[in-house]
Amino acid sequence: MDYLGQLQEQLNQLGSENLLRSCTCIDFAQGPVIHMANGSEKVLFCNNNYLNLANDRRIKQAVTEAVEKYGVGAAASRLVSGTMTPHVELETAMGRFLRKEATLYLPSGWCANQALLTTLPQKGDLVLMDRFDHASIIDAVKASEADFRTYRRNRTEHLEKYLVDPKYNNRFIVTESVFSMDGDIADLTELVELKQKYNAILIVDEAHAMGCFGATGAGLCEQAGVLDDVDIIVAPLGKAVASTGGIIAGPKLVIEYLINKARPFIYTTAPSPMVAAAALKALKIIQAEPQRRKRLQDNAQFLRNEFKKISLDIGDSTSQIIPVILGQSAKALEVSKKLFEAGYFVSAIRPPTVPPNTARLRISTQSDHTQQQLNGLCEALKECL
Ligand SMILES: Cc1ncc(COP(=O)(O)O)c(C=O)c1O
Known about the structure:
This protein is an alpha/beta fold. It has 2 domains: 18-47 and 290-384, Aspartate Aminotransferase, domain 1, CATH 3.90.1150; 57-288, Type I PLP-dependent aspartate aminotransferase-like (Major domain) (Aspartate Aminotransferase, domain 2). It is built from 15 helices and 13 strands. It has a 7-stranded mixed beta sheet with strand order 3-9-8-7-6-4-5, sandwiched between helices. A 3-stranded mixed beta sheet has the order 1-2-11. Strands 10-13-12 form a 3-stranded antiparallel beta sheet. α2 (57-70) packs antiparallel against α12 and α4 (85-98) runs parallel beside α12. It is globular. Pyridoxal-5'-phosphate binds next to α5.
């Protein structure tokens, strides 16, 4: 069998296990309601546009102005000639926002985790990861030269067992703050206590918390009162910030080291200046409009309560990400399809994105979902299940 035949066989196998994936095309701006490529209208409950900034008029204006002034592409890597004013302005603003000495802007959150975690932990170091950390964290740590172990969420004794091991030069703890597939949160206060006790370095990925939590929207570290205690924050900007790219924020020396050593930073074209300008504008709106966060959390609370009333398994979610855990992939696909036919777009999340037998609908709410849309989803779910 030639290589194409081999690939086909593997895809057939995925298909027979209900694990085959494909992209569904939307022909509209991201928002509570979208139009599909075939023209049909759906209420969208599975994107990360938590604060509805992806189609914000003021951000679009900022992008238009940036395109007029800076064009579209950066046309070089950051270290050659691709660093432009919007990159620097965004890095400065992010440093202030996250109260860190320095920041670095990369083309995606994936890229930021790769740059940080393949470079900073070195041979002779140990990295401790939550066992459900995002793939961008896991793959980067595996590609580093450090040893690594996974720990169970909020099980201190498990973590401590590894932290006491004296044979390592440095110990890193890497966690998401709001977990992307479960919507539950890390106990950041406890992790800070541990990192202080064992002199470890704490890295927090705020992908799904930035903009959504904290008095100024800086994330869960701000809300938990530990922003200054966390060593390094990774802030992917494609979720509530509704642009693209990823920020690494931490000590000046770490950032200088990454600029000189991190291959995913050095060997890639700088992000387009227009997306940096979009993120900068979004940041200002996030700080100035806390009511968006409030509406988001109210919507999330409503859905969680309603789902519990009808005995859905939503795990330990306490955020705007609410999993409806259904078990088998076939079941998740079937319910997703029925919801789609009823006018609701909620994609099915299956292994290996989530553990075996925990296939789910990953429902995420937006600040602009109306009460009618939330009620409609609950009714449709009841019918489909
Ligand atoms: C926790 C977490 N970190 C990093 C990423 C990667 O960010 P990006 O989509 O900007 O590559 C994601 C999501 O995609 C994520 O959920």
